[in-house]
Design a protein that fits this description.
- The protein is an alpha/beta fold and 246 residues long.
- The chain is built from 10 helices and 8 strands.
- The model has no long low-confidence stretch (mean pLDDT 97).
- Bound molecules: 2-phosphoglycolic acid (PGA).
- 2-phosphoglycolic acid (PGA) is lined by residues 9, 161, 166-167, 204-207, 225-229.
Length: 246
């Protein structure tokens, strides 16, 4: 069956001193059913790998090209070179702040795979889109456009993150989470056949120790992509424990 995944996205947070939180996480016993991934800012990746133990380290974005005249950007090869094994792609903050389209994301996914990185592909609707009843249509088109045809459960993880739940403390109802995750699973099996069952589908958006267990009880929720609550080892550990027990 699918191995569960607890992924932390530190976003633009974290200085060298904050690696102490990662060290504390790494000192806890490894969960039996759950993989762990922390995506610190790019500036910390190399140092993070030195203290992460068997916690995987990932980037938060990469450029689609391998190298070249792209000031300020980082390639997938560079992430792999400094010890990353995964990369978050198409996060709504990238889509909004940097105008990333599904096609941009798909190109980055292919670049990530070419360096052996696991692609954590983010999709999710805005509140206006949800209120307009467009959620499933949007999710379908984001999946169609952001995933190259050679996606597999081994090279790709899907993260469903409703934009209105990110950093707001507000989460969808369990019925709403169930509806979208089930739709994602069906979309994946329609396109990739039996392989569609192999993809992990994470929920993201205001996952906290207090709500983790109920979210993880929902079918087709194979883990979480956690922002704010991944910055503190105690909070993230509580989420890992809830996931491992689910
Ligand atoms: P949050 O962020 O947990 O702080 O809501 C989640 C995300 O953006 O991945």
């Amino acid at each position: 069956m699918r191995r569960k995944l607890a992924a932390g996205n530190w976003k633009m947070n974290g200085l060298g001193a904050d690696l102490a939180e990662l060290e504390r996480l790494a000192a806890a016993p490894a969960p039996s059913q759950t993989g762990r991934l922390i995506c610190p800012p790019a500036t910390l990746i190399s140092r993070a790998t030195l203290v992460a133990g068997d916690i995987a380290i990932g980037g938060q974005d990469c450029h689609a090209a391998q190298s070249g005249a792209h000031t300020g950007d980082i390639s997938a090869e560079m992430l792999a070179d400094c010890g990353a094994s995964a990369v978050i792609l198409g996060h709504s903050e990238r889509r909004e702040d940097h105008g990333e389209t599904d096609a941009t994301v798909a190109a980055k996914v292919a670049a990530a795979w070419s360096e052996g990185l696991l692609a954590v592909v983010c999709i999710g609707e805005s509140l206006a889109q949800r209120d307009a009843g467009e959620t499933l249509a949007l999710i379908g088109s984001q999946l169609a456009g952001s995933l190259p045809d050679t996606a597999t459960g081994a090279n790709t993880v899907i993260a469903y993150e409703p934009i209105w739940a990110i950093g707001t403390g507000r989460i969808p109802t369990l019925e709403q989470i169930n509806e979208v995750h089930e739709f994602i699973r069906t979309t994946l099996t329609d396109r990739f056949g039996g392989e569609g069952h192999a993809f992990r589908i994470l929920y993201g958006g205001s996952v906290k120790p207090e709500n983790a267990s109920e979210i993880f009880s929902v079918a087709n929720v194979d883990g979480a992509l956690v922002g704010g609550a991944s910055l503190k080892a105690d909070d993230f550990q509580a989420i890992i424990d809830a996931l491992d027990a689910a």
